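Milestone 3.1: sequence recovery, worked example.
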């Protein structure tokens, strides 16, 4: 028997999901495949800013350099009497990798950083330029607790090292190294994301996807939704392995700033029949990375239906559900008739380009939804699997269709509301007759957001 799991009273299954996520977390952290997105364990010369449980921490395996720390080329290039040979840059890179985030930077490393900022990248070969960009990116990772505080001077210099015309490079390995580094840093720096548009155009328009490396495909997949390239995301997503997708699905629960790329991809596939996944031409006008705190969430006009559940069982569940809703209406309802939900401690919404992340917890396990931002509307999708108290395999799916509405009494950049409808499907996946038992909840919803 599949016991009804109320959309607002799922405390009994929360412990199960926490145990599941704890196991997933252990598995994920012990393997480097997602951490490097297709890289080997040695490809860890760089770092990505990774926020775990709202505290910024550095995981050097997540954001990698495309070069190893040493090279067989020992030719020396000197700029302003400073040794910028590949070996010397590699040595400084190795030294800075030993430092902890926000630790004191030794004077020699500070001086070397200043020399890199002053040097002319055009006087360096491609390996030196890649190593220099890795060193500066690593320096920013050590000296900043968040990508939001990165200095434009350093970021622009990193790009000047990476701004290489790769069309003239015959060596595929060298070409891939430069381009993958461009994709990674442009995405994770946030500030530089528009610089990578020409490269994305070149890859999608002029290259056979069968010739692209796994690293290249994954990086193009990750950056596509932020550029509102929905067709491209679907195209690259078809080439990503289930193992990588499983890890992409787990990461958004633990990394605050990591978007639920798998859920965005699944949403696009759901919409594919409607032919709504055309790339958008934003002319380089990309919505900056923005975090909103969820001030409140309200719902009304609740309905419940079922599939493959006996009439007697459903009538009991329906009666209990509407009694619960009537009780809530008498206690916590706003002036517009929305029942105010009791949310968990961690609740936020991220937007960056066309990608959206919604992290919510309403009386049960947290659920991360991935979404797409088009014009003034947002569509979101999320799902989660766990076992209930009867050892049933349960799936929860949430879908939102929302319009962005300005709060008339506030600046739109600081306070907005997401108003629309929400559908949640709770399914028992292991029924004996093979027919999934489902409770389907629908409601009008309003989410009030305040810019962080």
């Amino acid at each position: 028997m599949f016991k009804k799991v109320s959309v607002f009273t799922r405390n009994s299954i929360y412990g199960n999901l926490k145990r599941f996520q704890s196991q997933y977390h252990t598995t994920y952290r012990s393997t480097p495949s997602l951490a490097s997105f297709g890289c080997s364990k040695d490809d860890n010369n760089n770092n990505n800013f990774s926020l775990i449980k709202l505290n910024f921490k550095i995981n050097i395996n997540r954001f990698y350099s495309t070069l190893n720390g040493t090279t067989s080329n020992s030719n020396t290039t000197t700029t302003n009497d400073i040794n910028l040979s590949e070996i010397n840059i590699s040595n400084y890179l190795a030294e800075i990798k030993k430092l902890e985030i926000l630790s004191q930077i030794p004077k020699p490393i500070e001086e070397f950083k200043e020399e890199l900022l002053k040097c002319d990248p055009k006087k360096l070969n491609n390996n030196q330029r890649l190593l220099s960009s890795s060193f500066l990116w690593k320096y920013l990772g050590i000296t900043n607790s968040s990508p939001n505080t990165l200095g434009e001077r350093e970021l622009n210099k990193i790009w000047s090292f990476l701004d290489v015309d790769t069309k003239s490079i015959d060596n595929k390995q060298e070409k891939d190294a430069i381009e993958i580094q461009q994709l990674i840093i442009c995405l994770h720096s946030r500030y530089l994301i528009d610089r990578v548009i020409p490269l994305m155009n070149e890859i999608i328009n002029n290259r056979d996807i069968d010739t692209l490396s796994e690293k290249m495909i994954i990086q193009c997949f990750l950056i596509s939704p932020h550029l509102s390239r929905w067709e491209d995301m679907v195209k690259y997503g078809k080439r990503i392995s289930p193992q990588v997708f499983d890890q992409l699905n787990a990461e958004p629960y633990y990394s605050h700033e990591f978007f639920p790329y798998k859920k965005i991809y699944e949403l696009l596939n759901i919409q594919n029949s409607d032919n709504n996944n055309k790339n958008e031409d934003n002319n380089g006008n990309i919505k900056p990375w923005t975090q909103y705190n969820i001030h409140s969430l309200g719902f009304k006009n609740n309905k419940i239906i079922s599939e493959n559940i006996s009439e007697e069982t459903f009538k009991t569940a329906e009666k209990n559900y509407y009694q619960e809703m009537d009780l809530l209406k008498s206690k916590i309802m706003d002036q517009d008739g929305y029942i105010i939900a009791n949310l968990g401690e961690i609740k936020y919404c991220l937007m960056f380009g066309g990608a959206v992340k919604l992290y919510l917890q309403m009386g049960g396990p947290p659920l991360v939804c991935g979404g797409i931002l088009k014009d003034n509307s947002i569509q979101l999708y999320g799902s989660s699997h766990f076992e209930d108290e009867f050892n049933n395999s349960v799936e929860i799916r949430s879908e939102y269709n929302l319009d962005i509405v300005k709060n008339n009494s506030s600046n739109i950049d600081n306070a907005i509301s997401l108003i629309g409808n929400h559908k949640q499907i709770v399914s028992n996946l292991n029924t004996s007759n093979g027919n999934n038992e489902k409770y389907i909840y629908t409601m009008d919803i309003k989410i009030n957001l305040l810019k962080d």
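Residues 11-29 form the longest helix (19 residues). The longest strand covers residues 290-307.
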